[in-house]
Amino acid sequence: MKEFKHVIADPLGMHARPAGMLVKAVAPYASKITITAPTGTADAKRLMALMRLAAKQGMELTVTVDGADEEKAAAELQAFLAANL
Amino acid sequence: MKTGVGLPVFPGVSIGPAVVYRKSERTLPVSSGDPAVEQAKFDAARETAREQLTALYEKAKVELGEEKAAIVEVQMLMLEDLDYLDGVAMAIEGGAAAAIAALDTGEEFAEIFAAMDDEYMNARSADIRDMSHRIYDILCGNVGFQLPEGSFLLVAEDLAPSETIQLPREKILAFVTRQGSSSSHTAILARTLNIASLVQANIELEDAENCEILAVDGFTGNWYIDPDEETMAMLKAKQAEAAAARNALEAYRGKESITKSGKKVILAANIGCPEDAEAAIAGDAEGVGLMRSEFLYLGRDTLPTEDELFEAYKKVAEIMGDRPVVIRTLDIGADKQVSYMGLDKEENPALGLRGLRICLTREEIFRPQLRAIYRASAYGNLHVMFPMVASVWELKASKVLCAKIRAELEEEGIPTKEVPIGVMVETPAAAVLAHELAKEAAFFSVGTNDLTQYTLAVDRQNAKLGEFYVPYHPALLALMAHIAKSANEAGIWAGICGELGADPKMQEKFIEMGYTELSMAPGRILETRKLVCESEV
């Protein structure tokens, strides 16, 4: 299992668009990916669940990736979050 | 040619193609009883929805820009959401028809988002509903409401305020409704837009649907489907005559409204939304006597924010400049309902929690509106008035809140101006207590529609009661005389913003009573100024 943290830089927080892009980015991976915010935990492959976190700028997200392709998935996801959120 | 009659609500002649607006009468497909079949139906509908949204997205990107297109994109993403798809699959497995499963699951999620403590996420519930309604509509074979390219006459059984607000007003030549009354919202909108319109028309929607040309004579109340040559010539002549009469009134543009004996009257406009302020200027209004602020709350899924309200009021204040603008605070309830406020269904909404009563019990609704009004006050000459006042304490409590809000804004460094606070006199209690209210209020404006309804105990939405809705009733006129007298004695002004203020048979009488402001549909101002200037009173 891989785990890393990301602090939200986007002033709008995890709004619908980056959440949707995130879902698309992780869809190809078989690993189970969960995102934990101070407001709750969500499956990164589920858009509405991610949006329901209502995660705001400055909140720290803990991302866990668990599965056969976890190395690659975690690396890609980390890059994605740095670029888009 | 077919012909019939209705109750005319604005004079004039309109001729053009007809569009029939029907409330979505969808045929709900029942479940086939086989979950696998229903799931396949849902999957196919979702594919169609995806195609529709993709096309819409491309169109929006070109015509409206990336930002507006992103709204469509969000719905495309939601269409792929696993939680939504799982929810639908479970409902179908449980025996639901595909259409119902799509709709109910969407509603479940919409409610979750609406209940979140996050304004942005609250607004997403509308996206979810839009998305699930799209699938639902596809499954029900609903083609939606198609509008033609050019202008048209709109025919409907009846139109709710939330429906009229979504219509492209600049394209509508006339409203023809089978129901409604002369004080219903369709009628009010017709008068604001200066378009000949009929309510209670005996027209068959099928006939209107199949006609080439529909004509409405707003002078006589007649309607004609595919008029013959002779009728058409008569209507065209009338149309030209009406245009000539309108031109003749132009002589009164820019003039003061003063009677021959020297009584000066302010002729103001009733408006619903900021765009109407342009109509007020075009009609040569000397102010806005009534801005029905609830229209900013209709036709949407969430409360408008303070900033949205502020922008709307600021726009009106700026358009009207020095001219006074009277904003009536939110008057929701009775015939104007909004689901998102979570108001209980009432046995008797006209006597229920409405107008100022909602505002005084729900400060979270009232406060943003008052803050927005005070913020906008710096940009023009704003007045505020409260609807449905029945007791002096209600006015006092609202004034305390106003003072508090103004002080707050000053403290925040936001400029405000003095906003005169008045009462919309529309309950018999307020009319009888006018001499008491006059000590606390800066002005009165009589809402004759509700005052008539409450004084005579006649429901104004009930078409069958037409003959009992008597706006010239002596009881009403006695109240109106008392209101004007009380205002004059206290040294405040009194005006009329109900339909009666625009009634040429009554205007001289009101001026005699001591009313110094009449507020009406913008299109009526010039003809009223002519009447005032020619009057001896």
| CATH class categorisation of the largest domain in chain B | Alpha Beta
Strand percentage of chain A lies at: 25-35%
SSE string of chain A, helix = H, strand = E?
A: EHEEHEH
Number of helix segments of chain B? 20
Mean pLDDT across all residues of chain B, rounded?
A: 89
Largest sheet of chain A: 4 strands, antiparallel
Under the CATH scheme, which architecture of the largest domain in chain B would be assigned? Alpha-Beta Barrel
The geometry of chain B reads as globular
Q: What is the number of independent domains of chain B? A: 3
Radius of gyration of chain B (CA) equals 25 Å
Distance between the termini of chain A: 23 Å
Largest sheet of chain B: 8 strands, parallel, barrel
Keywords summarizing the entry:
A: alpha+beta, Histidine-containing Protein, Chain: A, 4-stranded antiparallel sheet, 3 helices, B: alpha/beta, TIM Barrel, 3 domains, 8-stranded parallel barrel, 46% helix
Describe this structure in words.
The complex is a heterodimer of chains A (about 80) and B (about 525). Chain A has one domain (about 1-85): HPr-like (Histidine-containing Protein, Chain: A), CATH 3.30.1340.10. Helices cover about 40% and strands about 25% of the residues of chain A. Chain A is built from 3 helices and 4 strands, in the order βαββαβα. The longest helix of chain A has 15 residues, at about 70-85. The model of chain A has no long low-confidence stretch (mean pLDDT about 90). Chain B has about 525 residues and is an alpha/beta fold. Chain B has 3 domains: about 1-20 and about 145-250, Phosphohistidine domain (Glucose Oxidase, domain 1), CATH 3.50.30.10; about 35-140, PtsI, HPr-binding domain (Enzyme I, Chain A, domain 2, Orthogonal Bundle), CATH 1.10.274; about 255-535, Alpha-Beta Barrel (TIM Barrel). In chain B, helix 4 runs antiparallel to helix 5 and helix 13 (about 365-375) packs across helix 14 (about 390-410). Chain B is globular. The two termini of chain B are about 50 Å apart. The mean pLDDT of chain B is about 90. Classes of the chains: A alpha+beta (about 80), B alpha/beta (about 525). The interface of A and B includes residues 45, 47 and 54 of A.
